[in-house]
User: Fold these one by one.
Assistant:
Number 1:
Amino acid sequence: MSSRIDSIKQAQQKAKEGLSSKFKKYLDFAVLDDEGLKQYKPSDGNNFIRILPPADEKAYFGYDIYVHHNIGPSNDAYLCRRRTKEEHPELDIDGTCPICERANVLKNQGMEWEDYKYLIPTTRFIFFVVDYTTAESKAEGPKVFDAPPKINDGFLAVSVNRRNPGDVIDISDPDEGYEVSFTRKGSGIKTQYDGFKLEGKDRVPDDWLDLPFFDEILIIPSDEDMLESMQMEESGTKEPKSTRAQRRERRTTTRTQTTKTEEEEPEEKPTRKRKQVQEPVEEPVEEEEADEIEEETEQPKKASEDLPAISDVVERARRKRRTRE
Ligand SMILES: [Zn+2]
């Protein structure tokens, strides 16, 4: 079996489990690992899940968070402390956000919304679910579902008593709740979720109910982390050392190493050449993030590199930190 096939299998597995923790810097994967909670990600086609009731008995079964995507050259995603604190005032977190401040600076400098909207946080909803699609997936138990608002809308739409639509039902109730189905079509920003339906009443075992509180699985980012990501972007590290020539060289070396029998392709070969021309400036890994953002449709392209300096924002944050210390 070729090594490429192995790589494709790995990529499939990764896509199934969701974005790697490397970029998603708002979920605490250490805590999730401790709790044995993997990420749930819907597949193309029909999906069947059971939403679990959260640890807080009075809380809604989904937890809204606000996330800055695509920050810095690695496209890090951070929790927006400002919006999250606004929606969850009970959280003991600093309600300021250097990324929002940065957006404000650009706005005040007269930049068009289109050009700085990539700095505006988007809404996500966290749910604890069990994947009922197959016996195997069900056996894997509770998982974390980091979902776009459209999913939440779908869950709310089926949270009504169909005989008496004025009545709300708790589909996450451990004894009286329901299995829910929905379909997923497409990928990336064109992902569509629809056909939300209750499949039937379902009672869940007690050992699925020992779940962390939502805020326990979140990472509250520090100013330093966010500013560092933004700084790197500004200093133009988009295209790191690997120049095109180096990459070509590396490609050739890898090819000769793995498939010794294969004839060396001449550099001039048209297909190869075209591929190089079309090569995106950004590293391929960023496409993964692009898919992850999905449905937040409006996620815009980044503004060009010639953004105004953010040193004032950085300096203010440093000063603030000093006073705190
Ligand atoms: Zn923010």
Number 2:
Amino acid sequence: MSDSANVTPNNLDAFWMPFTANRQFKKAPRMFVAAKDMYYTTADGRKVLDATAGLWCVNAGHCRPKIVEAIRKQAGELDYAPAFQLAHPKAFELANRLVDIAPEGMNHVLYTNSGSESVETALKVALAYHRAKGEGSRFRLIGRERGYHGVNFGGISVGGIVANRKMFGTLLTGVDHLPHTHLPEKNAFTKGQPEHGGDLASELERIVTLHDPSTIAAVIVEPVAGSTGVLIPPKGYLKKLREICTKYGILLIFDEVITGYGRLGTPFAAQYYDVKPDIIITAKGLTNGVIPMGAVFVTSAIHDAFMSGPEHMIEFFHGYTYSGNPMASAAALATLDTYKEEGLLTRAAELAPYWEEQLHSLRDCPYVIDIRNTGLIGAIELEPIAGEATKRAFTAFLKAYEDGLLIRTTGDIIALSPPLIISKSEIDELFEKLRKVLMNNI
Ligand SMILES: Cc1ncc(COP(=O)(O)O)c(C=O)c1O
């Protein structure tokens, strides 16, 4: 442990924390000072089982030796190389490795530094693609109610979480939304894909008819919606979206920021659900959460549409100072090595049945109104306290933390997404601890 590890800063005022109840936190701070594999260590020396892979990003578990070593080495070898008109070899090596695990035909990669930036990049690629093809009238973007696509203006425009949108004015114009697919009255306690709601994809036909297909550039959805509290696509839903997009020449974008890199037991959700989008958005698990980095995959058809005009000209006016930077590329390469050596991109498939069984065993706990799961994802929806929405789940989060378990809550939903290295005995520990919390008068 480093010298600073045990020091709790005595003034917490200056840091305005993201997506945090700042005043509550600063009265009773929760600080991690170290982590290894499945466990965090708190400032007061307690071990906390990580049931959320940090924020859905630490898929290989914490402080994995290969990744740590790769970053150390890279920092001393090549710290930074300009990203525009210059490069370094690892950025290309990584792109090739990524294309190898991506669905067939996703042959090109643009780098970003986060999920939010990957979203903006994907939306801009979609708009510019149609224009490059001479279909500049396609300017509309279609998102979905309850969707989460990060926090930047494009992302909150196509996103559908009200609290993330309502404070920020007019957002992007020309955006419409599909209905969400959460139908608890019909689908509660479903294991895997719900039976009901597949037809909701047909709402895209209505939207297309309303605006005319010639105005629509892209549809963006999370294959499994995470931040809104884990909504699993109903049977047939994603395939239907694909069919309608293909019929009208609309690009289908999958935001795989949480499902990418093995969460469902395949490298990407596109493979799990056997539906091929035109663009895949990723971040988080790409570097195991260690260094900020995102990657947007596009098909050759999209990429090639930009490759015309004079060769000395920039083809796409977009990019970041840190796109594919050496440290992030080194971390991502070591992450992919770790995933490969330990079979982590498919491990969730082996664990899923056990995970499902243990998760659904909480059905008899008080206030549990729904449980849902897919791959190594689980959600437990709690009945809200009358007039105090979100409080019951937040109380559960605080109690779990005290009892040595890190869960994540959104609204009154507990979301679980442990590192893909979790063992069966750690799954047992997770659900024993969670049962205790839920039985404890929250
Ligand atoms: C589906 C999805 N898209 C985008 C994002 C934004 O990623 P970031 O926080 O890295 O900007 C997230 C983050 O949770 C996400 O779940």
